[in-house]
Amino acid sequence: MKTLDKLMARSGNQCELCAATENLSIYDVPPTASNLSDREILACETCLNQIEKKEELNAGHWQSLSTSMWNENLPVQVVSWRMLNRFRNESWAADLLDMMYLDDETLDWAKQTGDHEGDGSIDLHKDCNGNILIGGDTVTLIKDLDVKGSTLNAKIGTAVRNIRLVHDNTEQIEGKIDGQQIVILTKYVKKQN
Ligand SMILES: [Zn+2]
């Protein structure tokens, strides 16, 4: 049986985290280099976007973790544990984590993305209007950019396609203007819809 069919059957055609029945796809629980045979879960788009930090966390969406944390499938437990950890400063999540039990091996796996570290908040790249930017977006410049030592024509209104997010700096993106790859500050761009 194909993986998707298997997961559909296992979950009863619903998101294994929040029970949504629309926009389901396979989430390969990282790290994907591991050789565990059972590593996938079925998840909806909303869950996936928040897991992958493309959208801000919405605690209201994750109350269902109180159910999914008891799922018999380890990858579902792992993702539930990770998401609970992102909310661990909130009492509802802290209480659930206190009740949750993972064996040592599974706990090691769960810890590998570091969701139990840091303050649980996520940093997102945002444009001048506060819209979330993701890799591959097209943005337009909202001011002329003065690129030192260059004749680059980076005028206000210039479209920059297929941007790349600068890892570990949410104020910067990279994109090509006139064939040159440059770093642009997110506050000077507007996301194109
Ligand atoms: Zn979901």
Automatic annotation (TrEMBL):
Where does the PhnA protein N-terminal proteobacterial domain start and stop, copy by copy? 6-52
Do you know which SMART domains this protein is assigned to? Answer: PhnA_Zn_Ribbon
Recorded hits in InterPro entries, A to Z, give: PhnaA_N_proteobac, YjdM_C
Q: Which SUPFAM superfamilies match?
A: Prokaryotic SH3-related domain
Q: What is this protein called?
A: PhnA protein
Record organism:
Paenimyroides viscosum
